[in-house]
Amino acid sequence: MRPIIFILLACVAAAQTKPRARDLGVPLEGIPGVLNAITDVKGVEVGHRTIIEGDNVRTGVTAVWPRGKASSDPVFGGYFSQNGNGDMTGTHWLAESGFLDGPVLITNTHSVGVVRDAFLAWLVKNNRKPGTNTFAGGFYTYPIVAETYDGTLNDINGFHVKPADADAALDAAKTGAVAEGNVGGGTGMICYGFKGGIGTASRKLPAGQGGYTVGVLVQCNCGSRRELRIGGLPVGDALTADPPRAGTQWPYREDVGSIIIVVATDAPLLPHQVQRLARRATMGLARTGATSGNGSGDIFIAFSTANPNAAANPGQPIQLAMLPNDSLNPVFEATVQATEEAIINAMLGAETMSGARGSKVTALPHSQLVDVLKRHNRLTR
After folding, report:
1. Residue 83 located in a structural domain
2. Of 165, 202, 298, 359, which one is the catalytic site residue?
3. Residue 135, exposed/middle/buried by CB under 10 A (0-12, 13-18, 19+)?
4. pLDDT > 90 fraction of the chain, expressed in percent and rounded
5. Annotation marks residue 81 as catalytic
6. Which listed residue (224, 296, 304, 359) is catalytic?
7. Hey, what's the torsion of the CAs at 342, 344, 350, 353, to 10 degrees?
8. Are 258 and 221 in contact (CB under 8 A)?
9. What is the pLDDT of residue 13?
10. Is there a domain that residue 163 lies in?
């Protein structure tokens, strides 16, 4: 067995103690859910597999199950590519059918294939079938696997993510608090020139707007330090942490990374409406300063957990619920707000990391950020 250190439990504990954006007084709009996480949307489960080995391996897998790992009931889904220098498998059938049939898996750029195949094997091993494209004795399906590039901190061409790692992320998925920062697929990521990774946030709409919940999870690995905006301020140049250091073999390049954004809601939306929700993630990303550079794969996916059993085939029309378009604005706004906060939470949850070929990436300095916000009267506490 390879000598890998899996730090899942430690990361979960850290996620519950490290200060998040609101703890530091970062000004943010909207009312979060109880956990301020994508798991505030009932049924959503998140699992991580964090892989750290020696000096060179810093990678992993993150799994997001829309209705939990025990369910094979598809959800209405849609995706949007803001900048397509990246990969998200399975999107042709997602766009064609309107159904997200299974989990969203996120890993590093060169491990998409192994994670995709691992989920198919997971279905077979667990005697499970997807909710569409099944027939007597078999099935075919198109797993959703997305990626961002961790080749500065991680030996990406060592192909260290194995099928067992995807299995572990799938099986570890649970409701409740979500570990952030250097975990799962986000283990080796860099965001706005600081350590990046996994982040999450949510919004709860008031009863007068339906009382719906919107949750967001990001794997952020994008942007340049000079672009970073927090609390509406250009804080990147004001923070004095060392810039990312990479070995001479593969020098670090700004904005060659990507961001994957997963948006969940319990609002009753049809597939074309969910696709509109995915597009709004772009505006939350823009609030933090990104301009979606040429080297960045900025790909977003959204789903609605409403309308259970919509993929059933009873041989007759299925009754569905949907919000009228004129009622979507609060859900759009919640998506933008939660996306912004999830990105900030990812950076605040991350820790300084050294990795492959002598690389090192410094975490966003909390105290300096607080000082900058305080000088401009932007702190909320």
Report:
1. yes
2. 298
3. exposed
4. 89
5. no
6. 296
7. 130
8. yes
9. 42
10. yes
* Residue 248, pLDDT score: 64
Total number of domains in the chain = 1
Residues lower than pLDDT 50 in the chain? 1, 3-15
| Residue 8, pLDDT score | 44
pLDDT in tens, 54-89: 999 999 999 999 999 999 999 999 999 999 999 999
Question: Which domain CATH number covers 89?
Answer: 3.60.70.12
In a domain, 380, yes or no: no
Can you tell me which residue has the tokens 């067992």?
164
Question: Distance (Å, rounded) from C-alpha 234 to C-alpha 250?
Answer: 29
298 is known as an active-site residue: yes
Neighbours of 328 (CB within 10 A): 18
296 is catalytic: yes
d(CA 161, CA 164): 8
Q: pLDDT tens across 249-286, in order?
A: 667 777 778 999 999 999 999 999 999 999 999 999 99
Residue-range definition of the domain harbouring residue 27: 8-369
Catalytic residue among 111, 202, 224, 258: 258
Three-class SS string for the chain?
CCCCECCHHHHHHHHHHCCCHHHHCCCCCCCCCCCCCHHHCCCCEEEEEEEEECCCEEEEEEEEECCCCCCCCCEEEEEEEEEECCCECCHHHHHHHCEECCCEEEEEHHHHHHHHHHHHHHHHHCCCCCCCCEECCEECCCCEEEEECCCCCCCHHHCCCCHHHHHHHHHHCECCCCCCECCHHHCCCEECCEECEEEEEEEECCHHHCCCEEEEEEEEECCCHHHCEECCEECHHHCCCCCCECCCCCCCCCCCCEEEEEEEECCCCCHHHHHHHHHHHHHHHHHCCCCCCCCCEEEEEEEECCCCCCCCCCCCCCCCCCCCHHHCHHHHHHHHHHHHHHHHHHHHHCCCEECHHHCEECCCCHHHHHHHHHHCCCCCC
378 falls within a domain: no
What are 343-374's pLDDT values in tens digits?
A: 999 999 999 999 999 999 999 999 999 999 99
